[in-house]
Amino acid sequence: MLKWREWIISIIGFSTTYIIFFSIAFLTDNLNNEIQKLKIFFQSINIQPIKLEFKLSLFFIIIGILFIITAFIIIGKLQERSIYFRKKIVVLLIFFILGIITFLFPSDLIINHIAFTLIPFCFFVSAYILQLKNKYISEIFYLIIIGISIYAII
Q: Which alpha helices (DSSP H) does 28-109 contain, by range?
């Protein structure tokens, strides 16, 4: 569980660079110019979902379903795990959410978006498969992943 001190420290650490930047801009009489640059930057951000073909859409839907299944099972058994493992899970969930958010920014390099989200996916699926007693389910998971990957590539 995250404590309020961790959030405050993160916010202060993130905002410190901006405070220093704006302080230097104020001292050098460039504050208005820098604020205008920031306004132009934020107005020029173009948020549009990436348009995917049917094969990739199906790939992401099935991978998403597998991720949701494995994530809920792993999160449901967090109390049995160590604190170190629980912290990793929280970081990977945040990493996955940030990866999903990157899909809103159009890019020619869709492989970067995919790689950013597949890292936590692989961890959750492998952690789930390692704790399975029934090996048939793990084989089914592997066959689904390999089959949908081959379908998306061809």
A: 31-43, 54-76, 83-102
pTM: 0.56
Residue 107 — left, alpha, or beta (φ > 0 → left; ψ -120 to 50 → alpha)? Answer: beta
Each residue's pLDDT tens digit, 54-79: 887 788 788 888 888 888 888 887 77
Cα 22 from Cα 58, distance rounded (Å): 46
Buried b / exposed e across 85-117, counting CB within 10 Å, b at 16+? eeeebeebeeebeebeeebeeeeeeeeebbebb
How far are the Cα atoms of 24, 52, 64, 112, 138 from residue 126, in angstroms, in the given order? 48, 27, 15, 21, 9
Q: Tokens 């689904």 belong to which residue? A: 144
Give tens-digit pLDDT for 8-50: 887 888 889 888 988 998 899 988 998 898 888 778 777 666 6
